[in-house]
Design goal:
seven-stranded mixed sheet, mainly beta, elongated, single chain, 11 strands
């Protein structure tokens, strides 16, 4: 009933910045908790940022001070601002969102298809 469309990935030099977007493909009732994950080849998928419905955020130590997650409920969009990028940040980044499509429905988790981020040294 809804797809998460990710954008903003690409190639950037070390120290550069990218902003990833995760937008719902249609109008929805609400977006609850949202998380950004990444997975590099041969590595496990890991959480890089999360934001709750109340706006609380959490980040693992390896991105603290560099990554910022934010949301624009009016646009049904969540962002991941990535600054001071390092080569080890290279991965496919995935958006996961807990979404309520309609007021009387239960929220459901949705995953985006991923967007490639490559950081050159």
């Amino acid at each position: 009933q809804v797809q998460l469309v990710e954008s903003g990935g690409g190639l950037v030099q070390a120290g550069g910045s990218l902003r990833l977007s995760c937008a719902a493909s249609r109008s929805i009732y609400s977006i609850n908790a949202v998380g950004w994950y990444r997975q590099a080849p041969g590595k496990q998928r890991e959480l890089v940022a999360a934001i709750s419905s109340g706006g609380s955020t959490n980040y693992p130590d390896f991105v603290k001070g560099r990554f910022t997650i934010s949301r624009d409920n009016a646009k049904n969009t969540v962002y991941l601002q990535m600054n001071s990028l390092k080569p080890e940040d290279t991965a496919v980044y995935y958006c996961n969102a807990n979404i309520r499509l309609f007021s009387l429905t239960s929220p459901t988790d949705y995953w985006g298809q991923g967007t490639q981020v490559t950081v050159s040294s």
